[in-house]
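ok so i was messing around last nite and threw this chain in just to see what happens. nothing serious, just curious
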Amino acid sequence: MEMILIVLIGALAAVLANRNIAVFNDGLRPIVGEHIEGRLSRRDLGLTAFAMSFGLVIGFGIPFTLTAAIILVHSILLGTDIIGLMTPKNKWGTPVAAAVGGLYGAGLLIGLEGFVNMFEYLPINFLEEMEMIGAPVIVTFMAFPALAIAFQFSVKKGVITFLIAALVRQIAVWFNETGLLTIGGTEVVLNQEGMALIVGMVFLLIFAMNEKRDEDSSGVDLASMFSEKVKNIRKNMFVLAALGALIAAGTNAFIMAGDPISLTLLSEGQINDAGFAAAARAIGFIPLVASTAIATGVYSPVGFTLVFVVGFFVPNVWLALGLGFVVIILEVLLLSSIARFLDRYPGIRNSGENIRSAMTRLLEVALLIGGANAANAIAPGLGFFIIAGFYLLNEAAGRPVVRVAVGPVGAIAVGIIANILALIGLM
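result:
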């Protein structure tokens, strides 16, 4: 079933990209829109897709996939963007895109299994140490609402939110240690990070909804301005829903996750926490996906990313398949209403980008710390030295490797170097 799911996801995602229906890379959607309007050739579109997505596949998607032994969805969907947009949109190009996309998905899954098995034959098996990369992410994730509030509203409000969230976390710890919370004689254990995250998100939504549009401003009715583009998305909603169903099922089968945070939690066996993390991320993506979809007529193959939430919380694959299909249908049907809501509350619309920025900043710090800890566990002393040097040289070179990937990539590199040194007798 795992192989069937991943092959179908790769094939269908490549077809959707090939037909200009949906692309995963947020930055590509406006460019695909330019191609649809006839202002960009197919060749230039394909080259642009390769330039924008290939580095993210190699430097972001693959490292996280390898460190957790679970496919980060970026690994497959950024690749299918490239495959779909670099093949011609004609009667033979679309089937080729489907075939190559399916093979690409299968290759990811087979390669992942082979990578995990390979560790057993290494002089230094560093697979267990690699799990340390995600450890800081789980704890620090609760801080992202406070950071988003600081970006959008004020540092003061961000600090207040952070302190209250930290206090709520410690109260949850105290309740767990004392065992005061019981239901029917059964002790209830609170997730301390989850409680802090909920408090932070409540503060963020309150601040955002209080930032209403200026009554003197005419505003922009996105739904009316781009009604034809919304109609184009609705024409393809069933094929979009089919892919959403497959991704929800793949998440439920624990073969993929939609972001590094939920992927890390899933690898630790914290499935409910992974679901809450995915839900928090989806809140930040609704304004971005909705506005770019309405403006360009190009959707995201994962929609508002709610299909991942479905995958984490439903009890079995078949229910995930059905609910994933329904969720994408509802998203597409509600696009116009969502656009009007975002026009009414510009604070919520603007919060999407701030949430994404806050998550990125948090991941940069947490994964650098986690990568350094993992590297030092693999090769004491040398690990810290290599990670620090890698980070500083990457900054000096203009960041050819995105910051968020420096920790995982560096830890993998240290593991490889340690094995080479062991083979020649220097470790």
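not much to say yet. The longest strand covers residues 71-72.
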